[in-house]
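Action item from last week, closing it out:
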Amino acid sequence: MAAVKLTLRQLRAHAVLHTFASGPTLRSVIEQLEFVQADPIRAPARAQDLILRQRFDPYRAGDLERHYPALGIEEGYLYAYGFLTRRLWQLRHPPNRKGLSLREQRLLALVSERGEAHPDHLQEEFGRRRAINAWGSYSTLAKLILERLHQRGLLRVVRREQGVRVYAPCPTPSEALSKSERFAAQLCAVSHVLAPISERSLRSVVARLARALGCDARAVIAAQRTAGLLAAGTYDGATYLWPGPEARRPSLPSADELPRRVRLVAPFDPLVWDRQRFEQLWGWAYRFETYTPVAKRVRGYYALPLLWADRVIGWANLTRADGELAVELGFAGSRPREREFRRELEAEIERMRAFLAVPEEQSPV
């Protein structure tokens, strides 16, 4: 399928309208997204909650964890750690028993016998021995083995108790696919989550997966474009890709279709995840500075990109103290002067306050 020429406004509108598609229930929104990236930092809330609040109303901070057992989803990796539809999780984490150590076999048998396992409840069998985890700190040996079995698709996360994962045996996958079929399906999923994504970025995101499965990402992308599974457009020397069915609309979206709305967006939101695309679409560099020394920060500890209609015009740092929400704004250029922007900004801050409040009623699943 030939690539179409895109204008900057078309590309911005396409990115905003594609990623902020909403749904009537939390389950339907997650099924539509397919993947929601997770992060434990709360500033003012976890990344997964900040992402979902933009796509489902009324979403409240913590709803994903509260409703997780009923949503039919899984924790795991796609291109980062997060929450996946069950089908996508099984594609990404097929069961792999090859080369299990004796400890791993013993723990897997124990979880299968008990039905589920909390790391703290395994001290009698595995003691309090600790080892270095992926973050450079220490975790109990049992916790690390549970995580490895989870990555191998042999255990799943059934819920969390005060933030700690509780594991159970995995059901047998409903279908067995070849490595090439699994890679093609996962590439399609990544292109959907981050669409429109440049071909260069897409190849970079799936490079590790391609190596692990022995696949040629460039060839698979070409094949999916030929088959109409991926559509393409060009802007400023870059080729952008998005799911093929969207290309069969009469025309690409325009900025006139966008609501005049302000959004405070999570640093890991699909809209801003690809920093190269961010700079090409909005003309300035956004960096996640949580792990940057304080003296070297430009925008703040956990700056949320500030979207106004189809433009990311700045950022906001939000803090909570004594029940109050403090908002500190910064702008990449001049602050919009129109009354409409001030009104929409106030509305977004009010939505943020409601999102952070303890819910009186449970949001529909």
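Closing note: The two ends are 39 Å apart (CA to CA).
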